[in-house]
Amino acid sequence: MLAQKGYTMTALDLSEEMVKQAKSKNLEGSIQFLCQDMRNLSNLDSYSGIFCLCDSFNYILEKEEVDAFFNEVRQHLKENGLFFFDTHSLDRLEEFDSEYNETGAFEDGCQYQWSIMAEDDYVYQDFAFYMKDKVVQEHHIQRVYDPKWLNETLSKYFDILKVTTDFDMEGIAPGEKYFYVCRKKVQE
């Protein structure tokens, strides 16, 4: 939608298959797609805004890597540039304290199984997709960070303009996700 409004867009993902899928939806060719790790943006320019959405942030599993990631993002934002990201809320840890399992089928007949559980600060998800000619299994580990720690770490690099929970609840409140809007701090 941003590209359709005339913004120059660069999108990246660690998965070649996800990049391939995204490219197939880029009808105008107005988005540059890269297969690379979001923690290293050294080959990229500076931007007015950087978005890290759809649980991507939660795949950074170490606090030191989070700090380095925030610094990397800051270095690639123009003056007054904005950084938007979402993260799991602490409620996700409670929600999946006991293992959750789901099975079902998609419209095309593909069967699936999904298991999710939380332990300490981590969320573990296992997926299995049973297609006609193959089975695809995935294992995901995500980390949930305390918002107080996040705010302290972010504040080294950004002014936190707004935090909402589940899009519409101002501040840190019960819900599935926190959404952050941050502005690059001016060099002191």
Question: What does it look like?
Answer:
The protein has helices at 16-24, 63-75, 91-95, 147-154, and strands at residues 9-13, 31-35, 47-52, 77-88, 100-105, 111-119, 122-130, 135-143, 158-165, 169-170, 177-184. With 188 residues, the protein is α+β, with helices and mostly antiparallel strands. The protein has a 5-stranded mixed sheet with strand order 3-4-11-9-10. Strands 5-6-7-8 form a 4-stranded antiparallel sheet.
- Please count the helical segments: 4
CATH topology of the largest domain: Rossmann fold
Mean residue pLDDT: 93
In which range does the helix fraction lie? 10-25%
Short description:
With 188 residues, the chain is of the alpha+beta class. The chain is 19% helix and 42% strand.
What's the layout of helices and strands?
Elements: E1 9-13, H1 16-24, E2 31-35, E3 47-52, H2 63-75, E4 77-88, H3 91-95, E5 100-105, E6 111-119, E7 122-130, E8 135-143, H4 147-154, E9 158-165, E10 169-170, E11 177-184
Parallel strand pairs: 1-2, 3-4
Antiparallel strand pairs: 4-11, 5-6, 6-7, 7-8, 9-10, 9-11
Write out key terms for the chains shown.
single chain; 188 residues; alpha+beta; Rossmann fold; N-terminal domain of TfIIb; 2 domains; five-stranded mixed beta sheet; globular
